[in-house]
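Morning, I've got a small favour to ask if you have a moment. It would help a lot if you went through both lines with me. I owe you a coffee for this, so here goes:
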Amino acid sequence: MPRHSVALLSPLTLALLLHGLPAQAEDTAGTAESAASTPSSEPAQRPAPPRPMLESRAESHEQALRRQLPARQQQTLDGGADPFLSLWLPANQAEPEGLVILLHGEGETADWPTAIGPLRRQLPDVGWSTLSLSLPEAPNAGVQARKAKPVTVVLEGVEKAEASQEPEAAIVEAEAAAPDVAPLLESSLPAADLAPAEPQHPQRVLARLRAALEHARQQSPRRLILLGHGTGAYWAARFLQEEQPGDVTQLVIVSAQVPRGVETTLDELLPQLRLATGDFYYRDQAGQPDLARERLNAGKRQRHPAYMQIGLQSLPSDARAEQAQLVRRVRGWLELEPRAAQR
């Protein structure tokens, strides 16, 4: 073909090409649309694996104690398929006076700096072995239960009742057309708003105490004492009331508190325990004197044979001296109270 013919046909060719571009674009779009509507033969993408459950606060505390304290102090006990950490310190003398099992309060640890830690570390210097238990976290610990808030559900697709229709009939039709939203509401409400399940917390605590008592008996102590701080005082008293172990001779409670949700209070439990009981409380801390007076009066009504209250003074400006005072007074009671229990 002559060269001038190519030059003449070039604009025509370009026009045809430009005219065919929209059709090609439409064909491409249609192909993509049909491909999107056709199920893919490739396997669907797997959902992301569920996140691991977060550790409870009590479990986190146990892990921290395992990292911080020497391995020789750590004892892993089994509370019925519920392994837990306990801290063991033998008495620093050839013939120990006995063994004290320590129970911390709610929100505390087996080496808490108030009461539990000082007693655990210092009683061995005066002849007492100590075994401090890690207790499970109470359900809804530190969380006040809230009432479920009313939820307004908008129902789509339900036509308004006619003005001539009876109100009762309109309600019946609306209820029949309403979807089942209960599962959605339960999944959307916070945990504190839902009714709590039947707690297994008491059973776990008592099982751990049984395991600790079995471990303590292997040491063949001359005397065996339970000591509870805060809510740990309640669990120690409840264990003694339910199990009634004959080899536990004394009970010590310090700044006693009653956990939320329990039916039996300490002023009902303590008079039933016919063993030496030392009740330590702080005279200048809000609420403690009144509760101590109730426990004292309950003991008098039941003629408790060996119940003694010891009032302490807070030392907010010197925490170390305050803890030393507590250790000194508990030591003195442990040495004197058995003679009172024999009378």
